[in-house]
Design a protein that fits this description.
Residues 44-178 form the Nudix hydrolase domain. It comes from Streptomyces thermospinosisporus. Keywords: Hydrolase. InterPro entries: NUDIX_hydrolase-like_dom_sf, NUDIX_hydrolase_dom. The structure is a single chain. It is built from 3 helices and 11 strands; from the N terminus they run βββββββαβββααβ. By secondary structure, the chain is α+β, with helices and mostly antiparallel strands. The strands form 3 sheets. A 5-stranded mixed β-sheet has the order 7-4-9-8-11, sandwiched between helices. Strands 1-2-3 form a 3-stranded antiparallel β-sheet, with no helix packed on it. Helix 2 packs across helix 3. The two termini are 33 Å apart.
């Protein structure tokens, strides 16, 4: 048996969008189950996201600390952002987020991993990149607002982040998945064996 996720779509008898927000919406589908019954499934419709594990030459990862209102915590995270434009190239979006949030650019980009954050209740897909060959970006810093105006930046050793994840001190999905994937890739075929930055992404097709 091949362990691989596969596309499949069960019959939808009816659909409704009871809520439309600024970036996301809520959809209700009437889905036909294998036994023929029809059930309601409510879920958040999300444009998708990108995130960046930016690794410097001292084996430190660029992280930021930001307030997240739904969980009432300040979380340590890696640079990330929405795919605001349908069909947007995820690499370009990740490069933009790294510049805007950390004022950093990178020479080497790879796909670290692709995940669905909460597939039981949201269709958000996230592509997490590995960025290496870091340097300070040129030009003026991006003007931040709202929660980002209170953001803190740091560079933290990979081993320290791993300890924080396993100790239950760090909870951000992209940071946890990204850092542990980085460690797994190192112990496997190595970072240079990761997929290229423009590898296909069926969950969010894009123009190269």
């Amino acid at each position: 048996m091949t362990i691989k996720d596969t596309p499949e779509e069960w019959e939808i008898r009816a659909t409704d969008t009871p809520f439309v927000g600024n970036k996301t919406s809520v959809r209700t589908d009437d889905v036909v189950m294998p036994d023929g019954t029809v059930v309601h499934r409510d879920y958040q419709v999300h444009p998708g996201s990108v995130a960046v594990v930016a690794l410097d030459d001292q084996d430190r990862v660029v992280v930021l600390r930001q307030y997240r209102h739904p969980v009432r915590q300040k979380l340590w995270e890696i640079p990330a952002g929405l795919l605001d434009v349908p069909g947007e190239n995820p690499l370009h979006a990740a490069q933009r987020e790294l510049y805007e949030e950390a004022h950093v650019k990178a020479e080497d980009w790879r796909v670290l991993t692709d995940v669905y954050t909460t597939p039981g209740g949201c269709d958000e897909a996230v592509r997490i990149f590995l960025a290496r060959g870091l340097s300070e970006a040129e030009g003026e810093r991006f003007q931040v607002e709202h929660e980002e105006a209170d953001m803190e930046l740091a560079r933290v050793p990979v081993d320290e982040l791993v300890r924080g994840v396993l100790a239950g001190d760090l909870h951000n999905n992209c940071l946890v998945v990204g850092v542990l994937s980085l460690v797994a890739a190192r112990t496997g075929d190595g970072l240079d064996a990761l997929r290229p930055a423009l590898a296909p992404w069926p969950a969010r097709p894009f123009e190269a």
